[in-house]
Amino acid sequence: MDQFTYQHGEAHCEDVALKTIAKEIGTPCYVYSKASLSGQVKKLKDAFSAYPTLLCYAVKANSNLSVLKEIFQDGMGADIVSLGELERSLKAGVKPTEVVYSGVGKREDEILRALDVGIYSFNVESKAELENLARLAKQRGKIAPISLRINPNIDAKTNPKIATGLFSTKFGLVESEAMELVLFAQNNPNLELKGVGCHIGSQITDLKPMAEAVERMVAFARRIIADGHKLEFIDMGGGLGIVYDKEIPPSIDQYAEILISAVKPLGLRLLIEPGRWVVGNAGILLCTVLATKKTPKKSFVIVDGAMNDLVRPAMYDSFHAIQPVLLSEGIEGIHDVVGPVCETGDIFGSDRSLPAMNAGDLLYLRSAGAYGSTMASNYNSRTKPAEVMVEGAQFKTVRRREKLEDLWRDEEL
Ligand code: LLP
């Protein structure tokens, strides 16, 4: 259910008016709905309830401690890609035995900590990584659980910057090389092969590449098993798309059905790593209009949020719906909504139809829960925005707005 609605002409998150949050916390500010988060996790659990599945939330999508705590409490594990994500997840209460560690490059200190806390699996992407892992596991007197990430050379039909399943990308292992690593792991007392997997990309709205990918993983798992090796799981990564604009992504039930029906005959546990699907539409970015201006070609609405707060439009040309906080009867106009950063690319939305906006008015960008705050930066020496969690008629700050002194806290004069 959409938790961002208009009540009496005013935008709300659950039962809190966005203008109240703007007044008390200031803008720019990320606002998350707790009901939306737990609702998504519940839908995910229901969709996969018919089959043993480990649901590992991709922490990179939104790693705010309160967001993580809610997701882990609701029953998900974690897919992490760095020591920072591991420590955050532990702090937020994840069970180490439900953590998988993805990523094409892992440092020694990162591997050692993950070994020490006893994660579920390292998703290995190269021979060098596996050798390193074996050496460090030996040093610690441990057995490292591993999964081999395959590059299936499948086009996920998404933005090329977030497509990860083709040979032209840095990700995963070619199957023939992975087969050699199976033997390497088999012969090494400090490694235990548990799974195979892939992640072909993000914001995928077409089920066909997903179906193809799972068939390929099942076929590969069969080869490994036929060679006399044991396997525990198949990891299909993340990637299920959401609605930003007019996309029609598959339903979570269709997605689950495709994965489960392919993996079930093998009897292996299924693992998925959804990020965007869980948090994307559970958050918005609330902004205040600073000024409006016109050129002979364009009408601009300049807001206090910018590409440093939400980089997706500038980085991927991605679409975020932009809505006024107060519905008005006024005449709609066509505007570019832009931030104050000194780059032409600092545009949140081009040619958007909005009611007349004046300095001091509030508007918000939808679908900003995933890859919003986690990709925020201090560009232009702008402090990172506050983050607020709404629950019913209550809200609380879950990340205070950065202070000016934070900007140079670690610098020397
Ligand atoms: N697993 C692995 C190994 C991944 O690399 C990713 C995302 C996921 C899971 C989660 O994918 P999701 O379910 O969220 O699609 N910053 C970009 C998205 C980058 C995705 C990177 N990997 C954006 O704002 O669109």
How would you describe this protein?
There is one protein chain. Helices cover 30% and strands 25% of the residues. By secondary structure, it is of the alpha/beta class. It has two domains: 4-32 and 280-411, Beta Barrel (Lyase, Ornithine Decarboxylase, Chain A, domain 1), CATH 2.40.37.10; 35-277, Alpha-Beta Barrel (TIM Barrel), CATH 3.20.20. Strands 4, 13, 14, 15, 16, 17, 18, 19 and 20 form a nine-stranded mixed beta sheet that branches. Strand 5 (53-58), helix 3 (65-73) and strand 6 form a beta-alpha-beta unit. The radius of gyration is 23 Å and the shape is elongated. It starts with a strand and ends in a 5-residue tail after the last helix. The relative contact order is 0.16. The model has no long low-confidence stretch (mean pLDDT 97). It binds ligand LLP. Residues 58, 61, 79, 102, 162, 199, 202-203, 237-240, 273-277, 312, 316, 371 line the site of ligand LLP.
Q: What's a concise summary of this model?
A:
The chain is built from twelve helices and 20 strands.
